Amino acid sequence: MTAPQDLWLVVGLGNPGPSYSGHRHNVGYLVADELASRMGSPFRAHKSGRADVVEGRLTPPGAPGPRVVLVRGRGYMNESGGPVSAVAKFYGVKPDHVVAIHDELDIPFGTLRVKFGGGDNGHNGLRSLRSSLGTGDFYRVRAGIGRPPGRQPVADFVLSNYSSTERAELPFQVGDAADAVVTLVTEGLDKTQSRFNS
């Protein structure tokens, strides 16, 4: 089954389950949830059994816009690639129509960067995606979480909850990241970068 060129796979990277839900590492899930809410559909199990998906459009009813499949893997972050590649194969979506939403240490909290391609920068979810897709040539919506304070290990930092100050700001970052995804799939990378790469 080959996908029409207007079909996009939008992947929120994170870890499943309530114990991880407030962690910095799970911002990709939060953005995917926001997009699902805008599409007016809950996530449901994909036939592969390895992911939950929502199908629809990110544009208002009746407005033109590409079809989108939102994806949240059911496995852990470092195993994200398998579920995503299974869903991509099912829908016939090539890597250049995949958008990964993830946390980024090298960007200050509250800011975004959108880009195409690149390495994994030590991010286990991206490493798994690149390995399973066979390429790093997919889009990334990178939500800044900043660096850990003092000497806190990176692994502990990304798997910890946002501070109370950050939690107050988080809905704005999540909303901006969701807007960036919509702009990316409807208007392209250049316009998205000029609008959102703070």
Automatic annotation (TrEMBL):
EC number(s) given by UniProt: 3.1.1.29
Catalytic activity: an N-acyl-L-alpha-aminoacyl-tRNA + H2O = an N-acyl-L-amino acid + a tRNA + H(+)
A Gene Ontology cellular-component term: cytoplasm
SUPFAM superfamilies: Peptidyl-tRNA hydrolase-like (SSF53178)
Chain positions of site Stabilizes the basic form of H active site to accept a proton: D103
Protein keywords: Cytoplasm, Hydrolase, RNA-binding, tRNA-binding
Matches recorded under InterPro entries: Pept_tRNA_hydro, Pept_tRNA_hydro_CS, Pept_tRNA_hydro_sf
One GO BP: rescue of stalled ribosome
Binding-site residues for tRNA, renumbered to this chain: Y20, Y76, N78, N124
Active site: H25
Top enzyme class: hydrolase
Pfam families: Pept_tRNA_hydro
GO MF annotation list: peptidyl-tRNA hydrolase activity; tRNA binding
Record's subcellular location: Cytoplasm
Site (Discriminates between blocked and unblocked aminoacyl-tRNA): N15
Entry annotated with the keyword tRNA-binding: yes
PANTHER family in the record: PEPTIDYL-TRNA HYDROLASE (PTHR17224)
HAMAP family: Pept_tRNA_hydro_bact
Function recorded in the entry: Catalyzes the release of premature peptidyl moieties from peptidyl-tRNA molecules trapped in stalled 50S ribosomal subunits, and thus maintains levels of free tRNAs and 50S ribosomes. Hydrolyzes ribosome-free peptidyl-tRNAs (with 1 or more amino acids incorporated), which drop off the ribosome during protein synthesis, or as a result of ribosome stalling.
Similarity annotation: Belongs to the PTH family.
Subunit: Monomer.
Xref: NCBIfam families: pth
Protein's name in the database: Peptidyl-tRNA hydrolase
Organism of this sequence: Nocardioides guangzhouensis
Taxonomic classification: Bacteria, Bacillati, Actinomycetota, Actinomycetes, Propionibacteriales
